[in-house]
Amino acid sequence: PGFPRTLGQARALDGICELDLVISLNIPFETLKDRLSARWVHPASGRVYNMDFNPPHTQGIDDLTGEPLVQREDDRPEAVAARLRKYKDAAKPVIELYKSRGILHSFSGTETNKIWPYVYTLLSSKIPPVLSDEEH
User: Fold this and answer.
1) What tens digit of pLDDT does each residue of 54-92 get?
2) Domain locations in the chain?
3) Euclidean distance between CA atoms 4 and 65, whole angstroms
4) Is the terminal CB of the chain with fewer CB neighbours within 10 Å at N or C?
């Protein structure tokens, strides 16, 4: 989940800066649940593995130390589902706020490499290119 997550955070952010672009990524509940539930950690170092995207060489074992990996309580499937429901309820008014201001841009999908080109195109149209000293 991104920031701001609540109306209180959105109002606090308003006091710091004026937003002119907000991006909302709409990813299916099951996709988020599966991805978050696939996360395992080496407690001593904080190294994070994802069983789908960057699994350890040996399942359940840290690559560098050979010590066991653990799944944090809040990464267990039932905890993830509860977290996602709570986030959705809290974020809905924030999404509506930015939508009412006309600055919300929403993108849907399940894979970064398929969503990113659309986000990049939007950002490229809103942000002028940075020129090097030689180009000035």
Assistant:
1) 999 999 999 999 999 999 988 888 888 898 888 889 899
2) 7-38+73-125
3) 37
4) C
